[in-house]
Amino acid sequence: MEQTLLILKPDAVMRGIIGEIVTRFEKVGFKIVAMKMIEPDYEHYAQHYEGIGTLKTRKGDEIFESTLASMQEGPVIAIVLEGVEAVEVVRKMVGDTQPKTALPGTIRGDYAHVTYGQASQVGRGVANVVHASADKDEAKKEIAHWFKPEEIYDYRVVHEQFTQPRKQ
């Protein structure tokens, strides 16, 4: 099974929509194998967004700094989801990075509406509710950055008990 990282950003936590978002992934059949609330420092986010994600390299200092500032406005919920083609399916469920172009039915399409232009005018990162790993390689690096191996659990959800061989 494939794993991916999902981060519920400060705007999701402060709005009280954590349960609604997590429920969507559970209903699809993803298994939560790790989850924690955390309030990382600047260096942690810098490693996440530039060391792994190359945001500064791709988008420049202004977007990088405003993103890090927005991420530090409150705690986040970091989650490792596991399932069939988890990276691709989670990205599909999350929707486009810019909320105004995210389709209805996606998390960003349903819970956010800020544009890049509006966020830039006020010097903030885009409040787009969640972060999801972009590809399999990024997912592995991000999971290792956010979670220790002993924080990731291996267990069976109920439907797995009837579709997979017994664990010895």
Can you offer a commentary on this structure?
The protein has 168 residues and is of the alpha+beta class. It has a single domain (2-161), classed as Alpha-Beta Plaits (2-Layer Sandwich), CATH 3.30.70.141. It contains 10 helices and 4 strands. The chain is globular, with a radius of gyration of 16 Å. The two termini are 19 Å apart.
Quick structural summary:
By secondary structure, the chain is an alpha+beta fold. It has helices at residues 10-15, 18-28, 42-52, 55-59, 61-71, 86-94, 107-111, 116-121, 136-146, 158-161, and strands spanning 2-8, 31-38, 76-83, 130-132. Helix 3 packs antiparallel against helix 9.
Write out the CATH superfamily name. Answer: Nucleoside diphosphate kinase-like domain
How does CATH name the architecture?
2-Layer Sandwich
Radius of gyration: 16 Å
Outline: globular
Biggest sheet layout = 4 strands, antiparallel
